[in-house]
Amino acid sequence: MSDEAAARGSVEFDQTAAARLTAESATVATSAIGTARVGSLECETSAIGLVAADGDVNATWSMLSGVIAKGEAEIERGFAGMVASAGNIEMEQAGAELVLAAGDVTMDRAGAGIIAARSVSVKEGWVGIVAAGDAQISEGVNVLVGPRETVLFAAVFGAVFAAVLALLVGSRHPDV
Question: What pLDDT does 172 receive?
C-alpha cells in the first residue's frame, strides 16, 4: 500500500491501494483509496473514502463515502454516503444517504435518504425526503416525505424553534 500518490497530469490506478491520491485526472479500477483530491475521476469497482473533484466524478460498481464535485456526478450500480455537486447528479441502480445538487438530480432504479436539488426526477426507486423546486416522482416510487411535506415540516419546526428560543431568552431576562 502506498501512503500517497500525486501526479500533475493523469494517473491510472489498477488493483492499487493508497491513503491519498492527488491528480489532475484519475482513472481508478479495482482499487482502494482513502482520500482523492482530483480534477476529474473515473472509478470502477473500487472503494474510496472521500472524493473532492474540481470537475466531474463518474463511479461504476463502487463504494464512495463522500463525493464533493464542482462538476457533474454520476453513480451507476454503486453506493455513496453523501454526494454533493455544483452541477447535476445522475444515479442509476445506485444508492446514497444524502444527495445535494445545485442542478438537477436524476434517479433510475435508485434510492436516497435525503435529496435537495433544483429539480428531482425519480423513476423506480425510493426516497426518504425530497426538497426540490420541481419534483417528478414516477408512480410506484416510495417517498417518505415529499416537497410539500418538507416545506410544511420546515415551517412548523421553525415556528416551534422560535417559540422555544423566545421562552429560553425570556426566562433569562425576567425584568424585560
Answer: 58
- Least confident range from 50-54, 124-128, 148-152: namely 148-152
Angle at 62 between CA 112 and CA 55, to 5 degrees: 85
HSE-up (13 A, CA, CB side) for residue 156: 6
Residue 32 · residue 14 · CB < 8 Å: no
CB atoms within 10 A of CB 91: 29
Largest CA distance in the chain: 70
Q: What CA–CA distance (Å, rounded) separates 166 from 170?
A: 6
Would you place residue 142 in the very low, low, confident or very high pLDDT band (cuts 50, 70, 90)?
Answer: confident
**Nearest-CA neighbor of 146 among 171, 164, 120, 168?**
120
Q: How far apart are CA 100 and CA 18, in angstroms?
A: 27
Output the pTM of the full model. Answer: 0.81
Number of DSSP helices (H) and strands (E) in the chain, helices first: 1, 14
Do residues 134 and 120 touch, judged by C-beta distance below 8 A?
Answer: yes
d(CA 126, CA 100): 16
- Phi/psi for 151 (5° steps) reads -65, -45
Beta bridge partners of 57: 41, 73
pLDDT over 90 at 150, yes or no: no
Q: What grid cell was written down for 120?
A: 428531482
